[in-house]
């Protein structure tokens, strides 16, 4: 279902100029993005930006070469509210592109604070409006041009229902006395950081293997990343992690047999690229088992008996009070991570928001629920 709203495709500077002149954008708009994050190509790339101003859906084509910086002032304007659903990835993508979005309203957070059972946008829209959505295009290729009518309908439906739902949920959150939590969480989205996609080792590598192994594996990952960027392919398509690990763990066999199982055909067919991998493996010394680790100071901890008592005497009753007041979904969200902090001596609270510190303090001290 496409609803009755017109859809305007923007892939030229002239169309973008007309879009930016609309007065409807001066107070609030909803938006969403479609992107590829190392799934079909290299990088975290915007493929569509959908914007709904209350009367028209605009679908901006980032692949057209238009200057997207011209729309960033809309997103950065603190007087214009931006409504979206589950927006952390969208906001991280925009920030990586140079856009720092302000005045954000995330409908998913509002739904959670309303104890809404819907776990995705389609379920939320159907529950709140009675309009079932066709999600058949959810996994479609958004880099294709032109988009199909089905893709355009899907992209539009992701934004046109959000204003109505945001209004309904705001009223519900207010009635539950949780507007301050909603505001704190929406404010925090402004500070979201761009995602780091640089090659990195897994924690188990440092735990199980030598420093020499870790250093060589990191070189292989960086080489894979360089080639993936050059060929515009997801790094995992060039080789999976086990293939690189096995090249080092079975170094002699790999060097003798030149087995390229698990590697992309472009590598299997290129002696030049194979030589780069072989050179790294050849310089790895499996006899060097040294492991120099910076020792972390031992953290204080409670005994199991002490921990169980804290959970029984403080955490469980506090959680039950939250469930009785707000429901299971909202209670889990409000108290996420707090039990671990309460059962840890001298925990680090630096990442907590003000309302979370208040709840942590009440839980730790065995006090009643603080909000009336």
Q: Characterize the biggest β-sheet.
A: 6 strands, mixed
CATH overall fold name of the largest domain: Nucleotidyltransferase, domain 5
Helix fraction bin: 40-55%
What is the tally of helical segments?
19
What's the arrangement of strands in the largest beta sheet?
A: 1-4-3-2-5-6
**CATH architectural arrangement of the largest domain:** 2-Layer Sandwich
What percent of residues are in strands? 5-15%
CATH class of the largest domain: Alpha Beta
Number of strands: 6
Corresponding CATH superfamily of the largest domain: Ribonuclease H-like superfamily/Ribonuclease H
State Rg. 26 Å
Q: Tell me the domain tally.
A: 3
Mean pLDDT: 94
Classify the secondary structure makeup into a structural class.
Answer: alpha/beta
Distance between the termini: 42 Å
- What shape does the CA trace take? flat
Unreliable spans are: none
Taken in chain order, the helices and strands follow as EHEEEHEHEHHHHHHHHHHHHHHHH
């Amino acid at each position: 279902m496409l609803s009755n709203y017109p859809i305007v495709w923007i892939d030229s500077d002239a169309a973008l100029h007309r879009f930016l002149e609309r007065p409807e954008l001066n107070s609030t708009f909803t938006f969403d993005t479609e992107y590829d994050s190392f799934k079909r190509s290299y990088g975290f790339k915007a493929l569509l930006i959908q914007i709904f101003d209350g009367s028209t859906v605009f679908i901006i084509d980032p692949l057209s070469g238009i200057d997207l910086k011209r729309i960033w002032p809309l997103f950065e304007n603190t007087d214009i509210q931006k409504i979206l659903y589950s927006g952390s990835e969208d906001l991280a993508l925009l920030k990586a592109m140079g856009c720092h979005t302000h005045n954000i309203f995330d409908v998913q957070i509002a739904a959670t604070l309303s104890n809404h059972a819907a776990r995705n946008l389609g379920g939320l829209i159907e529950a709140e409006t009675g309009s079932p959505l066709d999600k058949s295009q959810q996994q479609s290729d958004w880099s294709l041009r032109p988009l199909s009518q089905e893709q355009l309908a899907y992209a539009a439906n992701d934004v046109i229902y959000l204003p109505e739902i945001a209004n309904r949920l705001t009223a519900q959150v207010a009635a539950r006395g949780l507007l301050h939590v909603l505001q704190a969480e929406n404010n925090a989205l402004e500070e979201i950081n761009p995602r780091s996609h640089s090659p990195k080792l897994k924690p188990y590598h440092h735990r199980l293997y030598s420093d020499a192994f870790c250093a060589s594996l990191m070189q292989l990952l960086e080489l894979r990343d360089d080639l993936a960027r050059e060929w515009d392919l997801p790094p995992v398509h060039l080789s999976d992690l086990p293939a690189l690990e096995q090249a080092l763990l079975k170094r002699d066999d790999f060097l003798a047999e030149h087995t390229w199982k698990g590697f992309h055909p472009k590598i299997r067919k290129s002696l030049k690229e194979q030589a780069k991998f072989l050179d790294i493996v050849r310089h790895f010394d499996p006899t060097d088992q040294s492991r120099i680790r910076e020792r972390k100071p031992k953290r204080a901890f409670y005994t199991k008996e002490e921990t169980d008592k804290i959970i029984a005497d403080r955490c469980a009753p506090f959680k039950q009070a939250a469930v009785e007041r707000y429901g299971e979904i909202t209670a889990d969200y409000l108290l996420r991570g707090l039990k671990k902090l309460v059962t840890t001596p001298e925990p680090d609270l630096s990442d907590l928001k003000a309302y979370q510190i208040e709840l942590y303090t009440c839980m730790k001290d065995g006090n009643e629920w603080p909000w009336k």
